[in-house]
Design a protein that fits this description.
Blueprint (H helix, E strand, L loop, with lengths): L4 H13 L5 E9 L2 E9 L3 E4 L2 E4 L5 H22 L4 H31 L12 E7 L2 E9 L1 H17 L18
Antiparallel strand pairs: 1-2, 1-6, 2-3, 3-4, 5-6
Helix pairs in contact: 1-2, 1-3, 1-4, 2-3, 2-4, 3-4
Length: about 180
Amino acid sequence: MKPNIIGIIGGILGFVSLALPWWTMSFSSSIFGQNFSIDASAYLYQVTALGQSATLGSEYWYGWVALILVLVGSILGIAGSAIANKRRGLLAAGGVLALVGVIVFPLAFQMNMSSALGNTDVPAGMGLFGSGSTEYLGATLTYSTYLTFGFWIALVGAILMLAASTRKLPVAVSQLAPPPPQL
C-alpha cells in the first residue's frame, strides 16, 4: 500500500514549524546619531532577543498548548499517512489538532499582549500585526510586529493533513472484482 505523501508532507511541516519563530517584533531607532535595530522573536517555548533566549513559564501557557497540539497532530498525520487502517480518521485528527494549535496561539497571544500592554506606555496597536512609531525616553522607535514562519508553516501543514484525509484510498488490483465471463 502506498503512503499518503500529502499527509506526510503536512506532518513534516508541522514538525519544522516547532523549531521556527511564530511571532516577531522589530524595532529600529536612531539615538545620538547611531542607528540600531532589534528583533525579538517568540517561539512556542522561548523568546529570543539580542542573541539571548529565555524559556517561558506558565504565563505563556498558550505557547506550550500550541506546541503539544501541533506535535501530536504531526505525529498523527504521519502515522495516518503510513498505515492503512483508520487512515482518514488519523489524518483528520492530526489536521484538526494542528489547526487548533494554530488558532490557540494567536488568539491567546493577542489577549495576553493586550492585557500586558494596557499597563504600559507602549502603543496599543502593538499586537499580532502592527507597525508604527512611538516616543520612548526621548527617542523615536519604529516598530513592526507580525506572525512569522513557524505559524504559517504550521497552518499549511494542518491544511495539508486535512486535505490528505479527504483523498480516496487507491484500490489494489487484486481487490477488484474479476470481470464477468464472456459468452
